[in-house]
């Protein structure tokens, strides 16, 4: 069975009884299912296993509006309207008695930001008003105000603890591919040799307590047979780890695959994906992330850690009523959790806050900024207390360069920025093309086989090269390293006359071989990362992108170092680089290259620079990092406006309105609204002229997510808007709670209702579920204004009027399809509403 996140969403969406407005037809989806190799029985079993606590909690809140409409003769007061008439059953007003489920949302739909914000504002007013009545209510109001900070504390503690466990486990399992510690199998290679007094300067990585698999199996660690044994064990462990990872993801939590950042961006914009941040997803993603990183695949754990932190935030929201019952408030917590994820991934709390603000969040008020900072601080403190790297430092790649950079070095730094932009644009196009091919061919029918093949190719090609055999984090750390006299790295083997290993001398033969290995590693990383990102295991892109840039930067740094050594009297180096001096720092070039490539792929700028100097501790190198990051973004934007996460959002068809994308076309609202010329008229409800049977027939015959309410079908005068889900739940609830409700019962949306005749069934008053102030625009409103309204207010739909008469409706999906059509893209690629 083939699946990916977007396909799983499509199939789950089709299982619901009530489809969202303008959703794909059943025949189209069934055709996609057959093309992609889905089996309904298998899908049902997968979906039943992922039905963990979803993002939408049944809430009892409703809109409480009190504006008045025109009424016919015979209007009564509200008291008279709700009194039993002529001995008949009591008329239940759902405005006074909230119905559980009203005000919530279906899966794969967009929340109403305005309604959620209004609901929270009303709740806050009620709490403030009651706080003046008694001391107990005052205490409750104080606790309510502190609940947000307490939630941030819990999110930081939980995310920091999980990240520390992931780091320790991944380091141990990565070393397990090469050997085991006899003094304690739970020690990784570095910890195993810490207490050993028998290590040498030339062979620092070997100690009697650590045994390679060749030593354990054949009793020797040298020779061709020992090399082949280690090679075979390396490949076998990698295949085992990747098989366990993909099997767990496929069986228990399909949402645990991938990076998670594209989906989190979509969820933070208001989209509902139930189960994507549930407890099963958290548990499986945490376990499989360790397995995927340990397998040696070209992926990182930093992106998935953002998903893990958001899962923690979502689960902990259920402890607090105001976050459990309000989707907008919950997304404030998720924005802070995204900052926590980056904080624990890189040890960069400030960079995490800026990352959430710049890259992920859709709505980021000032109080969310403060709370994000606090949560990131708590998470970083927790991670530092665990000390997973054993360095007593929070930073992942601490650097301390021996010489400052010179102004003339900005030229090669800008060249690295150009390389990063080119690499970013190339990677995005190639990866999207590969993912599209995976989804449209038989390649995507066998996700487990694909993961195993990619793992086998990666392991077989990586082992012979010392710079691809080690984990990507260790590779970056070595590339960032500054050469010193006590450094035994081959990157520092210059063979200078003093016999030391410090940089600045002529390149030795060993260094030339090392540069060849790095060049091969660069080609390998570029190709294999394109294929790896998107397979069905947790996979991040930060570290692989940084590795590509770090290799390219180190190569350029060594080249500049040799150029300075042999041409120190030239115009370029005269005055600041004397003969025999270490003027060039190759590790700095590696750091700048890493920032450039990461910026080219993600299009980050401010947050990227802050993350890099927090990651390395190199505060004085902000200017080179800024120059490379800006150059990388300019070059990449010139070749394509989308970053990797936006490209995957578009590939998966998520309803995401990108705030960075400008709408420059001169179209009007009437060009986009539905219904269009030649289509059936808009399905509407009337204020007091419809029966329960009429409403149920309208629901059965349409797939729209809501219906406008008009005064009469002839006048088309707009009264309000009712969500489909609220209407269905209210009718079902009224049949259970109110006597006499039948198919012939009238549905009333007016404030004042006339008494029903004695022989008629009890009417159903549903004014409480109607939005009395839906957003409207005229048919001559420019679409760029409409797009801005949708972006800034987070609307689900907007009604179009002409001289006060209802003409049509514009949904978020209509805008996305229109923008895709204007950009010469397939408008049917938007799957969800």
Question: What labels would you give this structure?
Answer:
CBS_dom_sf; 833 residues; 4-stranded mixed sheet; 5% strand; elongated; mainly alpha; membrane; 3-stranded mixed sheet
Can you give a write-up of this model?
Keywords: CBS domain, Chloride, Endosome, Ion transport, Membrane, Transmembrane, Transmembrane helix, Transport. It is found in: Endosome membrane; Membrane. This is Chloride channel protein. The chain crosses the membrane at residues 146-166, 231-249, 282-299, 305-321, 333-357, 407-432, 444-463, 511-535, 541-559, 604-623. Residues 673-737, 770-827 form the CBS domain. The strands form 4 sheets. This protein has a 4-stranded mixed sheet. A 3-stranded mixed sheet has the order 4-7-8. It contains 31 helices and 12 strands. It has 833 residues and is mostly helical. It starts with a helix and ends in an 11-residue tail after the last helix. It is elongated. Strand 10 (776-778), helix 30 (783-793) and strand 11 form a beta-alpha-beta unit. Mean pLDDT is 82; it is low at 8-92 and 496-502.
């Amino acid at each position: 069975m083939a699946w990916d996140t977007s396909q799983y969403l499509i199939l789950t969406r089709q299982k619901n009884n009530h489809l969202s407005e303008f959703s794909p037809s059943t025949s189209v989806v069934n055709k996609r299912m057959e093309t992609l190799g889905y089996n309904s029985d298998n899908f049902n079993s997968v979906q039943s296993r992922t039905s963990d606590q979803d993002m939408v909690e049944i809430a009892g809140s409703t809109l409480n509006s009190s504006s008045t409409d025109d009424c016919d003769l015979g209007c009564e007061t509200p008291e008279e309207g709700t009194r039993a008439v002529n001995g008949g059953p009591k008329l239940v007003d759902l405005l006074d008695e909230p119905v559980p489920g009203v005000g919530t949302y279906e899966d794969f739909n967009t929340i109403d930001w305005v309604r959620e914000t209004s609901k929270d504002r009303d709740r806050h007013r009620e709490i403030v008003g009651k706080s003046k009545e008694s001391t107990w209510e005052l205490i409750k109001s104080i606790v309510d105000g502190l609940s947000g900070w307490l939630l941030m504390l819990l999110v930081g503690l939980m995310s920091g603890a999980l990240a520390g466990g992931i780091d320790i486990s991944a380091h141990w399992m990565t070393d397990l591919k090469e050997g085991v510690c006899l003094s304690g199998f739970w020690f990784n290679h570095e910890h195993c040799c810490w207490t050993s007094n028998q290590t040498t300067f030339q062979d620092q990585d070997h100690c009697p307590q650590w045994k390679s698999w060749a030593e354990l199996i054949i009793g020797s660690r040298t020779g061709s047979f020992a090399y082949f044994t280690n090679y075979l064990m390396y490949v076998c462990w990698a295949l085992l780890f990747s098989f366990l990872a993909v099997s767990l993801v496929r069986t228990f939590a399909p949402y645990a695959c991938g990076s998670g950042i594209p989906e989190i961006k979509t969820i933070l914009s208001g989209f509902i994906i139930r189960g994507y941040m549930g407890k099963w997803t958290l548990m499986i993603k945490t376990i499989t992330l360790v397995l995927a990183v340990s397998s040696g695949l070209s992926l990182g754990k930093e992106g998935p850690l953002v998903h893990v932190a958001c899962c923690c935030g979502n689960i902990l929201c259920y402890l607090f009523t105001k976050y459990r019952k309000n989707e907008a408030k919950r997304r404030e917590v998720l924005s802070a959790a995204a900052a926590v994820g980056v904080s624990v991934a890189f040890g960069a709390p400030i960079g995490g806050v800026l990352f959430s603000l710049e890259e992920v969040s859709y709505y980021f008020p000032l109080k969310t900024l403060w709370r994000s900072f606090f949560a990131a601080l708590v998470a970083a403190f927790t991670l530092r207390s665990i000390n997973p790297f054993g360095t007593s430092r929070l930073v992942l790649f601490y650097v301390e360069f021996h010489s400052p950079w010179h102004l003339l070095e900005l030229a090669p730094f800008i060249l690295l920025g150009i390389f990063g932009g080119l690499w970013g644009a190339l990677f995005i196009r190639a990866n999207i093309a590969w993912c599209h091919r995976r989804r449209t061919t038989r390649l995507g029918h066998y996700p487990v086989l694909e993961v195993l093949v990619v793992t086998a190719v990666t392991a077989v090609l990586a082992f012979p090269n010392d710079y691809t055999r080690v984990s990507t984090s260790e590779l970056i750390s070595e590339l960032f390293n500054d050469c010193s006299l006590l450094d035994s790295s081959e990157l520092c083997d210059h063979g200078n006359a003093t016999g030391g290993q410090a940089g600045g001398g002529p390149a030795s033969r060993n260094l030339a071989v090392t540069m060849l290995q790095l060049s091969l590693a660069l080609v390998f990383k570029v190709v294999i990362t394109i294929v790896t990102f998107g397979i069905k295991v947790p996979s991040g892109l930060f570290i692989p992108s940084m590795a590509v840039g770090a290799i390219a930067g180190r190569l350029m740094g060594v080249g500049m170092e040799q150029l300075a050594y042999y041409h120190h009297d030239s115009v370029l180096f005269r005055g600041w680089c004397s003969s025999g001096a270490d003027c060039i720092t190759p590790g700095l070039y590696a750091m700048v290259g890493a920032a450039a490539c990461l910026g080219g792929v993600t299009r980050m700028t401010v947050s990227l620079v802050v993350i890099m100097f927090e990651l390395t501790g190199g505060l004085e190198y902000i200017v080179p990092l800024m120059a490379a990051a800006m150059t990388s973004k300019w070059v990449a934007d010139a070749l394509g406006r989308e970053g990797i996460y936006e490209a995957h959002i578009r590939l998966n068809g998520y309803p995401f309105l990108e705030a960075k994308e400008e709408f420059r076309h001169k179209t009007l609202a009437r060009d986009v609204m539905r219904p269009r010329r030649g289509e059936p008229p808009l399905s509407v409800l009337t204020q007091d002229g419809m029966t329960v049977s009429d409403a149920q027939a309208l629901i059965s015959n349409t797939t729209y997510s809501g219906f406008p309410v008009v005064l009469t079908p002839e006048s088309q005068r707009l009264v309000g808007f009712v969500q489909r889900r609220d209407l269905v739940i209210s009718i079902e609830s009224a049949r259970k709670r109110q006597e006499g409700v039948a198919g012939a019962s009238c549905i009333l949306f007016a404030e004042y209702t006339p008494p029903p005749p004695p022989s008629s069934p009890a009417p159903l008053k549903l004014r409480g579920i109607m939005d009395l102030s839906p957003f409207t625009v005229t048919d001559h409103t420019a679409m760029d204004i409409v797009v801005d309204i949708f972006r800034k207010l987070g609307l689900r739909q907007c009604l179009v009027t002409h001289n006060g008469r209802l003409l049509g409706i514009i949904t978020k999906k209509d805008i996305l399809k229109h923008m895709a059509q204007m950009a010469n893209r397939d408008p049917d690629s938007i799957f969800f509403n």
